[in-house]
Amino acid sequence: MPTSSSTITPVEDTSLTGFYRDMTVPEKRTFWACATGWALDGMDFMIYPLVIGTIIMLWQVDAGTAGLAGTVTLLASALGGWGAGYLADRIGRVRTLQLTIIWFSFFSLLCAFAQNFEQLLIYRALLGLGFGGEWAAGAVLMGETIRAQYRGRAVGSVQSGWAVGWGLAVLAQAALFSLLPAEQAWRWMFAMGALPALLVLYLRAYVKEPEVSVEARAKLAISGDRPSILEIFQGPILKTTILASLVTTGCQGGYYAITFWVPRFLTTERKLSIVSSTGYLSALIIGSFIGYLVGAWFADKYGRRSLFLTFSLGAMVVVLAYTQLPLSNELLWVLGFPLGFFASGYFSGMGAFLTELYPTRLRGSGQGFCYNFGRGVGALFPFLVGYLSQITTLANAICLFALFAYVLFFLAAYGLPETRGKVLHADG
């Protein structure tokens, strides 16, 4: 929990782009490194949902089994995120970020050479360890590098990189599946996932460890007081850990229930081809990108907690309309924008919020555990949606699990304090 050394700084320039104009060179370098990493991370993760139909067809697996690969990736990412968060508290944020990027890039490349579904499942699980770790290290790095008055917009704007990566994956899908037969195109999609490894060169050359992290680890080294990985479950911090974990479970469970299966929903229940569905996914992605940016501004202007409450309610309404109303394909295309907007925009406040909830000595462990606990439980949603879709329609399955997740998100966020404007210190 915050210590008495924590202070609150007022947010002066609340414009969307004001934070970037006033950032220092180190802040800008960290911003672009993390934004690029998150974009490539998003591209890498979204490749599998985009090729899942091809995997089902080529290897004759059912929807529930195919969804299991997504679930396993996210479950592994929960372990990887917690471990990387703890490692970031011990060896530093930047070094941990480098290690996780190399790890998931390597296993994404191996996915391109999988000879059967069992091999793909193993590679996706191992990829997940680095995938979860990358967010844990990168979010803490951003949160500690950017000043308090700009943290929400800067960290939130980095989140918009996910939509950029998603868009790159969709464009690659449209191009590769147009130029190559499906049994080759999906392999090239996974091979693209090795691109993030190049980012490590930039990180090594230009991105430095945050001063508050260096100072905190130096103090711990002198005192010999090494934080335990279990300390986030003790004393008053336990309540924060429980509620924050429920927040991340709800926000990610809803997101994965929607985005993992919407490509399949469009090609099966809406009878669109892979190429023709690109326009529908584009509306969703553009809405997602704008949602991230507006959410980043909202988080600094009105607070992180207000962002979560507002956007979770909006997501509930739009999911109901998208999956349950008898809409024409034209109206469905239009509705893709608000669906992407509300189902993504709340992530803009998550990194800053979790950074501000924990003291510096436990920040990596706490933030890494909470976010990736949500990823792990949210990982069940792709599998459960796929399983339920064998009993009812895919639209009904998506709606049921997304609504459950967003109600949980709303209630847990309501129970946590507002953290907007908190200044971070080495001892709290």
UniProtKB/TrEMBL annotation:
Pfam families: MFS_1. Its main location: membrane. One of its GO terms (cellular component) is plasma membrane. It is found in: Membrane. InterPro entries: MFS, MFS_dom, MFS_trans_sf, Sugar_transporter_CS. GO terms for molecular function: carboxylic acid transmembrane transporter activity. Residues 30-420 form the Major facilitator superfamily (MFS) profile domain. It comes from the Bacteria. Keywords: Membrane, Transmembrane, Transmembrane helix. It is a multi-pass membrane protein. Signal peptide: none annotated. The chain crosses the membrane at residues 31-59, 65-84, 96-115, 121-141, 162-180, 186-207, 236-258, 278-299, 306-325, 331-357, 369-388, 394-416. Gene3D superfamilies: MFS general substrate transporter like domains. PANTHER family: CARBOXYLIC ACID TRANSPORTER PROTEIN HOMOLOG. This is MFS transporter. It comes from Bosea spartocytisi.
